[in-house]
Amino acid sequence: MRTPSIRNALEQLHRFLQSLTIQRRLSPNTTAAYGADLRSFLRFHHGSLETVTREQIQNYFRFCHQQKISARSNARRLAALRAFFGFLHQQGIVEVNPLTDIDTPKIGQALPKVLSESEVNTLLQRPARPTPLALRNHAMLHLLYASGLRVSELVNLPVTSCNLASGHLRILGKGDKERIVPFSAITGAIIRDYLEQARPHLLKGKASPLLFCSNRGRAMTRNRFWQIIRQAALAAGLTKEISPHILRHSFATHLLAGGADLRSVQMMLGHADIATTQIYTHVDTDRLKSIHRRFHPRG
Fold first, then answer.
1. Do 46 and 151 belong to one domain?
2. Are 140 and 154 in contact (CB under 8 A)?
3. Dihedral angle at the C-alpha atoms of 25, 27, 33, 39, nearest 10 degrees?
4. Residues designated as active site
5. Which end of the chain has less Cβ packing within 10 Å, N or C?
6. Number of domains making up the chain
7. Based on the domain organization, do 172 and 278 belong to the same domain?
């Protein structure tokens, strides 16, 4: 049974999450991640938010460490708690933010996993049996690599946002920020084949504003596309772990390796901060170091 203090804490959490959606215009996925992290703390604390102290916050992170929670996840939880208690302080719920002097855990910058260009070519081979579903999956995989979209952007992409004549996508990304992403004539031809030969069969006379739909003519889920990309990797004989985000990482890394400037890649990915994009320069640096060690006489 929930005590009054727990009910009040959950109500305040609900108000905070609403503010993230309405005022800060964060995506549903980001808001859900904040909610999950903060509920973890509320399950640990059990008491009134007004009485939370710096020591209790530290005890919570000791508990997280004992549970083998990674430094990166703890840094995210700390960021969520800072934002939540900052909100409570602004609302006059708490007099002092107990997280003011707590340092963020130091974490190493994990380099994103990428596919080689030959692995991408293997994954994106045209299906031997061009069924409507195979053509749809092929078009989705090809467009994901060609444009570097987030999986949520891909499965929610409207038909009207794909301009085949000019070869570009109009993407409404995080924070409702719009960006333009070009794609090649090859990608355009693959999408056109899907639109003409596959999409009408999937819709079965139904109408849909989305470019890609399920075999029942409905919107596709993120989880379903994860299954599609894994099945495609297995069928292609690739043993690497492959996810939608790995194709996005590969898109950025291959662009930079080919000579694209960092600012252009940032715009195509929809990163608010160029520092987020700079991680891909480290990926290419690692490749160069590997080549140097392999071929240089004093490598």
1. no
2. yes
3. 50
4. 150, 174, 245, 248, 271, 280
5. N
6. 2
7. yes
